[in-house]
Amino acid sequence: MIEKIKGSKEDQIRAGLVSCQGCGATVAMRMVLRTMGMRTFIDIPACCWTIISGAHPYTVFKVPMLHVAFETAAAVACGIARALKIQGKNDIHVLAWAGDGGTFDIGLQALSGAAERGENIIYACYDNEAYMNTGIQRSSATPEGAWTNTTPVNSPEDRPKKDMMAIMMAHDIPYAATISIAYPEDLRRKVLKAKSLNGYGLRYLHILAPCPTGWKSEPAKTIEIARLATQTGVFPLFEFDNIDDKKRLTINECGSIDIKKYLSYQGRFAHLKKENIEKIQEEVRKKRLHLLNLESFYNNS
Question: In whole angstroms, how far apart are CA 250 and each of 173, 181, 279, 291, 299?
């Protein structure tokens, strides 16, 4: 999968990862950093990648990396970016890398503040739809109907997934995009776009990263599940541009195939009944229609 990204740099990650088999978050990091290149400074709050990167003082990263408190990924990235600016190192890209728990929930205040101030950072959320590092607890990214250890089978998640892209777009940031590890060329193009907007303000990348452990899926199915998420419309690929106050939304991939195969690959949905699946299918249809209407609104206004 990595080799399909033409013109990419060498890996910025060494051997020695301690991630689970089939970890979508690991694939995402490899792809993003390979595109970002060596002139990158990354900070990571408490999340799976705190463990994956290795025990102190060792690390798998070839680029500078700083572990930070759970809620501070955006805030610390802002400090790093401002310090680099004072030193005149304007060609170094600061990347805040956080999970959905550290983005949707615990880190949302710092992220919102950084977006509102127009801080010169790239913020990437690798979304595995729960607090996986601490035992698979639900987050506000957990989809309706899903099992987690805090939303068990007899009481599954009963709230829809928070729409983080809508929240970030509402901040009028220069660029926001959804990304999937199943579409590497699209990933590379969007990361390069975020890099090209250095100096314009905060750029937000939302990356779907299936977790075999928390999703109860086969490790070998990670890429296929990620692809199905887009082909069904569960996780559409789109991007929001807002340069010089000229807003534009572009849908890159958003299929409408039946959702059953996507759900069947994940044990976290095994308890769902026919009526539950039909409800999820209808909600996906509505969200797809909303996205299409949104694209028309932005591009024709």
Answer: 15, 19, 27, 10, 8
Average pLDDT per consecutive 10 residues, the chain (301 residues; last block may be shorter) = 46 89 97 95 96 88 95 98 96 97 98 98 98 97 98 95 97 97 98 96 98 98 98 98 91 96 98 97 97 92 70
Task: Tally the residues of the chain.
Answer: 301
By DSSP bridging, strand 203-208 and strand 122-127 are parallel
Q: Cα 208 to the chain's mean position, in Å? A: 5
Query: How many Cα atoms within 13 Å fall on the side-chain side of residue 156?
Result: 17
Q: 204 is written with which tokens?
A: 């937000």
Cα–Cα distances in angstroms (integers) from residue 53 to residues 16, 66, 154, in the given order: 8, 11, 35
Residue 34's Cβ-side half-sphere holds a number of Cα atoms within 13 Å equal to: 24
Report the topology of domain 17-300: Rossmann fold (3.40.50)
Residue with tokens 């005149």: 88
Nearest one of 112, 197, 79 to 66, comparing CA atoms: 79
User: What distance in Å separates the CA atoms of residue 99 and residue 111, rounded to the nearest whole number?
Assistant: 13
Q: What whole-number distance in Å separates Cα of residue 167 and Cα of residue 190?
A: 19
Beta strands, E only, the chain:
40-44, 65-67, 93-99, 122-127, 175-180, 203-208, 237-243, 246-253
Q: Tokens 């999968």 correspond to what residue?
A: 1
> How many Å separate Cα 283 from the centre of its chain?
21
First CA to last CA distance, the chain: 38
- d(CA 283, CA 275) in angstroms, rounded, equals 12
175-199 pLDDT, tens digit each: 999 999 999 999 999 999 999 999 9
Distance CA 70, CA 204 (A): 18
